Amino acid sequence: MVITPLSLYVHFPWCLRKCPYCDFNSYTFVKSEKELLANYIDALLIDLEDEAERAPGCKLNSIYFGGGTPSLLPPSAIKEIIDRTRNLFSFASDIEITLEANPGTINLELCQGFKDAGVNRISIGVQSLSDEKLKSIGRIHNARQAEEAIEAIKQAGFCNFNLDMMFGLPGQSVDDAMNDLQLALSFAPPHFSWYQLTLEPKTLFAAQPPILPHNEELWNIQQAGQDLLAQFGLLQYEVSAYSQSALECRHNVNYWQYGDYLGIGAGAHGKITLANGLVKRYWKVAKPKEYIRGRDMFTAGEEDITFKKRSFEFMLNALRLYRPISYALFQARTGVTIETIAKELCLAKSLGLIELQSDAIVTTAHGRNFLNDLLEIFL
User: Fold this and answer.
1) Does residue 203 contact residue 21 with C-beta atoms inside 8 Å?
2) Do domains 6-254 and 307-379 have the same CATH topology?
3) What is the pTM of this model?
4) What are phi and psi of 143, to 5 degrees?
5) Residue 294, preceding bond cis, omega within 30 degrees?
6) CATH assignment of 6-254, among 3.20.20.70, 3.30.390.50, 3.30.830.10, 3.40.30.10
7) At what angle do helices 108-117 and 75-88 cross, to 10 degrees?
8) What is the pLDDT along the chain (379 residues), one digit of tens a residue?
9) Which CATH architecture fits 307-379?
10) Closest by alpha carbon to 41, among 12, 65, 62?
């Protein structure tokens, strides 16, 4: 039996302030609610025990603390969660343990504390190193705080870290974007996430949209940025992810390759392949206070994923990666052969969006530039 790789996602649903473009399950953090935070950590640990029953005896390849802003948690809480996880699961010898952080919520002491707790990778949400642009997207940190946070991560000895940056910000020109990008790259990040600001439904920016660069300007920014990232030795391996060799985000790659993942915390999602081949998706209660109260029922819902839906979901994720998609991987993760999507593959090939090799699907440059068109074929 082929064993599907397994990851664990831990959701922390609070931020110091909700960003106007953010559609994640996050809420404003109130420092005075110490009891709420303590109860949430207790609930996470109980939830973790339940998750261990979904995948008994399985090995974890990665743990990802996301949010929200999980760096608002003290290192002692992160250590408690990691230690309890280690008691319930076996760890891969090179397990990747990532913690998301925001400038203004970490310093050298905290970084050292997170490292001692077992975190070996930090992903920091910088978004921009221009005070003007940070203000335009509602971020509460400034450029100096972001630079200090990056230096703290490096000084604490993190050899693997990610910088999250945006482009297409209000009033941003190509020169603005390249200056911002060049400054960020001067910190020599091993991994870089660079993505376009989009106006998501049900956000403040959707209701009160800022004036963003037009499409031609966005295209020019993207092309210039990809060239600059390559000059700094960061290879694009996904639509918005770049890294030094062998330092791709293992947690995200597992997700994009349709691996399995367990989810704990308010609003967390999970996907698990059962011994009988059935694939299930589930999600947790979204509101933190309801999640805490529902200690006997953290799961809000679940569904069996049909073979047809598995094929689409696999392609939806795998086509984001800038690497060949093997037919063997498709079959291992979906339970069906590549012939089940032969019609769609032929159409995509005829449009110049993909090439078909003897054992793999390769997305063309044209397909990468028109990814949404390619994905629609598999709907």
Assistant:
1) yes
2) no
3) 0.96
4) -65, -40
5) no
6) 3.20.20.70
7) 10
8) 457 899 999 999 999 999 999 999 999 988 777 899 999 999 999 999 999 999 988 999 999 999 999 999 999 999 999 999 999 999 999 999 999 999 999 999 999 999 999 999 999 999 999 999 999 999 999 999 999 999 999 999 999 999 999 999 999 999 999 999 999 999 999 999 999 999 999 999 999 999 999 999 999 999 999 999 999 999 999 999 999 999 999 999 999 999 999 999 999 999 999 988 899 999 999 999 999 998 778 999 999 999 999 999 999 999 999 999 999 999 999 999 999 999 999 999 999 999 999 999 999 999 999 999 999 999 8
9) Orthogonal Bundle (1.10)
10) 12
Helix (H) or strand (E) holding 252: helix 250-256
In the block, tokens 């998750």 appear at 51
Alpha-carbon span 326 to 319, nearest angstrom: 11
State both tokens at 48.
Answer: 């973790």
